[in-house]
């Protein structure tokens, strides 16, 4: 499935939603969870993920915690309070966009009023 452009526009929302559901995650874990949830249909590359994580962190939407795990350093990401609010906003925007997109692509599904 070639959906790189679609993923780019939704990546921040995906990250925020996963962190809301899982409290904290590290980068590789995020990529694997997306792959698992989509049965391999969506693959997020490190080249796309880490800039998005760093941007969200710089905006104060994520906090980080460094831990040593099996002689490796892992950087865990968590939502801040602002990140939780932004996740709700982005989910509302995304749901609205999907509803409008469905109306455009399937006009026969448009609700009929006044009958």
TrEMBL record:
Matching Pfam families: PadR
Q: Which residues form the Transcription regulator PadR N-terminal domain?
A: 15-88
- Name the InterPro entries on file: Metal_resp_DNA-bind_regulator, Tscrpt_reg_PadR_N, WH-like_DNA-bd_sf, WH_DNA-bd_sf
Sorted alphabetically, which PANTHER family does this protein's record hold? PADR-FAMILY TRANSCRIPTIONAL REGULATOR (PTHR33169), TRANSCRIPTIONAL REGULATOR RV3488 (PTHR33169:SF14)
Q: What is this protein called?
A: PadR family transcriptional regulator
């Amino acid at each position: 499935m070639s959906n790189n452009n679609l993923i780019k526009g939704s990546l921040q929302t995906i990250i925020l939603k996963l962190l809301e559901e899982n409290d904290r995650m590290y980068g590789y874990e995020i990529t694997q969870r997306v792959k698992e949830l989509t049965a391999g249909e969506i693959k997020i590359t490190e080249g796309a993920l880490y800039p998005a994580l760093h941007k969200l962190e710089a905006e104060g939407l994520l906090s980080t915690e460094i831990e040593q795990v099996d002689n490796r350093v892992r950087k865990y990401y968590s939502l801040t309070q602002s990140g939780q609010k932004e996740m709700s906003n982005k989910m509302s925007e995304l749901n609205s966009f999907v509803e409008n997109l469905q109306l455009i692509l399937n006009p026969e599904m448009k609700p009929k009023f006044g009958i």
